[in-house]
């Protein structure tokens, strides 16, 4: 179980990824600029990681839905809208919302992350969105964890995208922070259906946070994929 070294609400600085070409870095910077004000709080380092992972996963054939990327900066406190659903091809923010973290991960800003069953923690890493079903939280979308050892127990832990009253603005206004899931990236009740529909099946979702290590953060492969196919 990884832990952040501080209980500050300030996110940890992230170094630039190695082996990322200047061309790819410029493309990510241009994307962020085009996304506009809704993406101002999306840290450039987090967006870079999300884009590199998306491209590497596309190259490996591990994700099928092209042009859509969801990223949550779980190093931000739950009081901030820290989830973005992006259209890479249209270069726009489709949705931005609050997202709850697991009870085992900490209070306002999560500090512990785990893949362990019954940990009630958020697990960092890249996910592939799967099918939808009607569960106890209503419409939900299953998630496949793509990082061995970090989030690969997602299906066994029933980590899914779903809506929850404790993940919305009304709860935040009343309690000063979001409530907690059992490890799921739970979404606001007023937005969850639209977000679940927008990401679709076979898309890339990154739950970013301190200590994230992923084989999909391969700048060289990502650059090759961008040169060959663009954001497709």
Automatic annotation (TrEMBL):
Superkingdom of the organism of origin: Bacteria
A Pfam family that the UniProt record links to this protein: YkuD_2
Name of the protein this chain belongs to: Murein L,D-transpeptidase catalytic domain family protein
Origin species: Hymenobacter nitidus
């Amino acid at each position: 179980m990884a832990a952040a070294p501080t209980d500050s609400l300030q996110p940890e600085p992230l170094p630039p990824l190695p082996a990322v070409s200047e061309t790819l870095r410029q493309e990510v910077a241009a994307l962020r600029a085009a996304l506009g004000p809704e993406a101002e709080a999306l840290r450039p380092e987090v967006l870079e990681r999300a884009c590199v992972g998306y491209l590497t996963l596309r190259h490996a054939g591990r994700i099928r839905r092209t042009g859509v990327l969801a990223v949550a900066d779980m190093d931000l406190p739950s009081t901030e809208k820290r989830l973005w659903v992006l259209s890479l091809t249209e270069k726009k923010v489709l949705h931005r919302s609050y997202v709850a973290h697991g009870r085992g991960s900490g209070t306002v800003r999560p500090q512990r992350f785990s893949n362990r069953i019954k940990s009630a923690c958020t697990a960092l890493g890249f996910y592939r969105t799967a099918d939808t079903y009607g569960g106890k939280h209503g419409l939900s979308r299953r998630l496949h964890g793509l990082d061995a050892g970090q989030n690969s127990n997602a299906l066994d832990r029933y980590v899914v995208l779903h809506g929850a009253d404790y993940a919305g603005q009304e709860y935040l206004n009343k309690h000063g922070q979001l409530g907690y899931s059992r490890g799921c990236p739970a979404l606001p009740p007023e937005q969850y259906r639209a977000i679940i529909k927008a990401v679709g099946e076979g898309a890339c979702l990154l739950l970013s946070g301190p200590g994230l290590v992923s084989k999909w953060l391969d700048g060289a492969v990502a650059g090759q994929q961008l040169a060959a196919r663009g954001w497709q």
